[in-house]
Specification:
This protein is mainly beta and 469 residues long. 5% of the residues lie in helices and 38% in strands. The chain is built from four helices and 30 strands. It has helices at residues 84-87, 230-233, 284-292, 336-341, and strands spanning 4-15, 18-24, 33-38, 42-47, 50-56, 75-80, 89-95, 132-141, 147-158, 169-171, 178-181, 205-208, 236-241, 249-254, 257-264, 270-276, 282-283, 303-304, 310-311, 314-315, 317-321, 329-333, 351-354, 368-374, 385-390, 403-408, 419-424, 433-439, 446-451, 462-468. The strands form seven sheets. Strands 24-25-26-27-1-30-29-28 form an eight-stranded mixed beta sheet, with no helix packed on it. Strands 10, 11, 12, 13, 17 and 18 form a six-stranded mixed beta sheet that branches. A four-stranded antiparallel beta sheet has the order 2-3-4-5, with no helix packed on it. The mean pLDDT is 95.
Length: 469
Amino acid sequence: MEKVNVRLRPIVSNINLPTVIKTAILPGDSMESLFIATQVGEIFYVRSGNIKLFLDIRQRIIELGTNGGYDERGLLGLAFHPDFYNNGLFYLHYTLAGTQGPGALSGSFLPNPCNPNTLNLKWNNRETNYDHIDTVEEWILLPNGQVQRRRVLLNLRRPFMNHNGVNSLNFSPETGKLVLTTGDGGSGYDPFNLSQDIMEVAGKIIEIDVGMNTFMENPTAVTRFNELPATIYRALSVIAKGVRNIPGIAFQRYYNQYIKYVGNVGQDLVESIFSFVYYTPLPVTEIIQASSQDREPNHEALVNLGWRGWEGNLPTTVIRDCSANSTLTEETIAYFNEAIGTSSNRIHPLTCYYHIDSRPDKFSGSALTAVQPYMGSEISDLTGCVVFTDFVSKGSRPPARGALAYTKIRTDCKENDYGIIEPDYNFGNHSAYYVSLGTNLNQSRLYLGVYGSANVTNFNQGTIFEIVK
């Protein structure tokens, strides 16, 4: 696919790491404002070139960067109710202050196909062996301009620091429900295989019916659906499983339907973008009822991204250096039986890119950070395409540079190639990690979030750009 050249137009500079970029129309207003959520807990909005603070919940966020600066916790999701203009409702996903735990494992994890004990670990003593608690909450913008929290929808106990999702809350234009995209709980290789276990909250895409009354003063933090009170789980359905870590879900109108796009962040080899139109949600009520009757719910109809047996379009692999030849590596299938077991009912990626790729006009990636469709006409080469970002290209020499790329939609469900988007912008000697991507309401504009450091504790190094022709 051909390289597409674009320009980056700075909109906001010197902000903290931006995790969410989207637009909304404020109640009583006549035009869209650009909203930016930062990982440390601020939400700003930009209107007519002026930036203002919408909400500051930094005191509610867990202390970030305690393990050297890099962190995947914080303010991770922001979504506005479809009727936000009239009701002022919006939703947040963030990591609660004061919930730091020791983690689910005492050390790092690496599966060993020669040792079955490493392939079937159990997450024991979950009430004490966890890293943190994430919350999903409903907030309201009152007519007097004040903002307040209304209710807690979910409190989730997470085993590790990483794989909590990012840009994790979005409303479905099809169902009007809130969609939560999270990850498998972290570490690496999904040690407890939470992503394929239908009772586990981790590793799923979940619909939440916010129209249902689920009010509870302080819901218990849970890890499994059957730990939830009935008032909460009745509002939940599972859309997909087999998730490693997802940077949000995006919807693209296609005639009278919507194509859904999700990315799955890879382990060691490959980053993947998936698309699907049809899905059969599985109500959590059915999951719990089946469990009480000692039977399996029918979850074969769920969208299955294949993790942990599959990493995108490749079987999940353990990589070791070859002792006899330092220029080579040994790749061994980590979970052979799981790769076979999920081979027929998983969906295949729309496109993939790899951590090592020497082909011309490709790049070696590290971690997918965003996926968004573009329906505008200004950048005609990208009209109708799916744009995605990578945190930092492995092929870039210091200072670090992220990667921007695109692929085209396919209705035949076959895997597609991708092309590079080349920004004409001089970052100078500063690092430029591509951490987020957003659009306006009709997807005619693209916004890129760039950070000057890989560490959230290096403050005020963020810039929001509009991608223009």
